[in-house]
Amino acid sequence: MSDVPKTHPRYLSLTLRDKIVAGVAQGITSTHGLIAHGRGEAFDYLVGEATQPFAMEAIHAAAVMLLSAEHPIISVNGNVAALAPEGLIELGQVLNAPLEVNIFHTETGREQKIREHLQKHGASGVLMPTTEAQLSYIDSNRKFVHPEGILKADVVFVPLEDGDRCEALRKMGKDVVTVDLNPMSRTAKQASITIVDNVVRALPLLCEKSRELSSDVPAQDLLKRYSNAAVLQAALQHISRSGND
Ligand code: ATP
Ligand code: MG
Question: Which CATH architecture has domain 53-242?
Fold first, then answer.
């Protein structure tokens, strides 16, 4: 890790860069993941590098949806594994949902390295892609899934998703909960619930909300009233105002 002083005004942002760069060095994160991270950084700047009310609303709905799921699953890629392994594991424990590795670029045993990285941080079972179970409507390597994981899931939590796969999961009748700083991405628009926030801020809040709601039967009425499009609109309005503050 580089020696970023805590007093630096961009401390958090620079720390996250260090984590992503370390992820690449460890063979967990793809070099392409650096570009995706840069796009996220730009939107985080516009969002104000803080969890905004539209993200809190989405986190609440996401907790309800995930707690109400019969077979929830947490899909893990190389960026999230590098940025927030502890948050993923904690969410898995709170929801009683397995983690499943699913990545686009599968160079040099990266799937296995992600699994080992998660296990090193305390994950017990980590599901891996198989050739026996495949998603429909998708041609990339990300179609290979685990029969007891993503294939069987009714709700897929997949932070930093690619639009193609989000669309495929939705066409297969699954609900998708995503975290994506870009409210204009195809993923953000197609997901059932999009949390427009940095995954490192959203994950602990989602764990906290899920824990808080887990003692009661979650109020599903909230989901009937929930509009992903309206929440994305609120995010866009916030961004368009951000230069005037
Ligand atoms: P789509 O395929 O959905 O249209 P895209 O092709 O623009 O999106 P991808 O590279 O597929 O982008 O996915 C990366 C997405 O993740 C981007 O929208 C980016 O803003 C977002 N992102 C990157 N880092 C973070 C982060 N730390 N937290 C939340 N979102 C992030
Ligand atoms: Mg994409």
Answer: 3-Layer(aba) Sandwich (3.40)
